[in-house]
Amino acid sequence: MESTPSEEPSSPLAAASFPLLVYDYGYPPDFHQAMLSAADMSMRTLQVHELCNYTCLETPHGLVLMADTVTSSGWCCLWNPQTGEKIALPAMEKMLPERCRCLLSDAVSSPDCLVLVHTFGEPELMFCRLRGGGAWVTQSYDIGLCQIPGSQTPPKKKYITGMAAVQGKFYFFETPDVLQVFSFVQSPEPHLELATCFDAITPRFTCDDAPRTATVTLSYLLESCQELFLVCLFYRGCDFERLEEVAAYRMDFSEQEWCKVTDIGDRAFLLGSANFAASCSATEHGLKKGCVYFANDFLGDSNDYHIFDLKEGTRELVGPNQDIPVLTRKPFWMVPVAM
User: Fold this and answer.
1) Residues 6+ apart with CB under 8 A from 82
2) Tens digit of pLDDT for each residue in 253-283?
């Protein structure tokens, strides 16, 4: 697949300081995007053609999967918001699921790069090769059943909620303490194969009165510098109002265990809704190095985000300096493109 230039001479976001926290609001045909730069805190409000007229799924690599979900054409591409460049993809034979997330298996420059969409709500994957032709493949998977304790309803099939791609493989939790891996297999037909699984105990929050206090953990898998990381947000109680600690862990594959790290070098981690998690250079993009940027107010309608310093243990609350109308979706990150 060859890149084709955008319809416009350059992207309207070419001058923006990425990463951006994007606030979608309005109704057709008056969609707008308010964009807050996490680098310099500048704020812009505009109408981005791609975001207004297509279904868009942001990826941790910075590229955005664009799909026509209005007509039956199945047209889709990968869009670079910084340059406006678009990379053509095979037409989709079915609509994108209403709730889903998109990942790239490798850097776009890799000849083996896959574009993968995993669905929230059912165990189904969609994927295609970025190069070399071929159609989108839809594939189901089986990682067992789940049932709400005490519920009388039948068990439902479990589905993947969080996933990270590292060096061509897709990692996810089968259970909180078991890590599974999907690998791409070309023969006899292109498919994703459950290559391996291994025990990797998810870190728990501990404190003096932990036995008497319930805790809840939000977990995010992400890739950084071709390594697998896990970020955990530990909440005291079950109401998500008291955040006790934010911690990062690197997977030691030789020992198959999570190792806590407080120094992630010149990196910043960006976490958002729908288990979005990405990493980028802090110095290059004007961020605070060694920090976690967390934008997912799942309990309210705040447009602020948190900055957690992993080494110092400090936190900061920042947000837009202007009022934003009611949003049509949760704020989401658009990160610098990693080619």
Assistant:
1) 11, 13, 14, 16, 18, 62, 336, 337
2) 999 999 999 999 999 999 999 999 999 999 9
